[in-house]
Design brief:
- By secondary structure, the protein is mainly α.
- Helices cover about 70% and strands about 0% of the residues.
- It contains three helices and no strands.
- The chain has helices at about 15-55, 60-85, 100-115.
- The longest helix has about 45 residues, at about 15-55.
Length: about 120
């Protein structure tokens, strides 16, 4: 089942609409940004193979060596790029003492208080 704003109990709230639109847009950007460079890196590896074949047929060992060195660096670049998209680890108890966590919790508590005031 796909999550949509229509399924949300407060779908008419402007703040919820903003959060939904913002998160959807961010997800689309991440999907494009994550996949596109991987495809380009794979194409680059294929070009290195073509250049290596050309260098070999021309009997240019220096050129072939340069292509091999460039190709050997590519998997490392790809791995570092891939690592930049891994999800951060969930907050541990030690992380909960940091100022960013405290600020976020205060924001959520304040928002909840404003959105759902206690009725006496």
């Amino acid at each position: 089942m796909q999550n949509t704003l229509n399924n949300h109990p407060f779908n008419d709230d402007p703040f919820i609409q903003y959060l939904y639109t913002s998160s959807l847009f961010q997800h689309q950007i991440e999907a494009v940004n994550e996949d596109t460079p991987f495809k380009l890196i794979d194409l680059q590896l294929m070009e290195y193979d073509r250049l290596k074949t050309l260098a070999s047929s021309l009997r240019e060992p220096v050129f072939e060596e340069a292509v091999n060195e460039a190709k050997s660096r590519t998997p490392s670049i790809k791995r570092k790029y891939q690592e930049s998209f891994t999800s951060p680890a969930p907050a541990s108890k030690a992380d909960k003492s940091n100022e960013t966590y405290k600020t976020a919790i205060e924001f959520v508590a304040g928002f909840r208080q404003k959105k759902f005031p206690t009725v006496h």
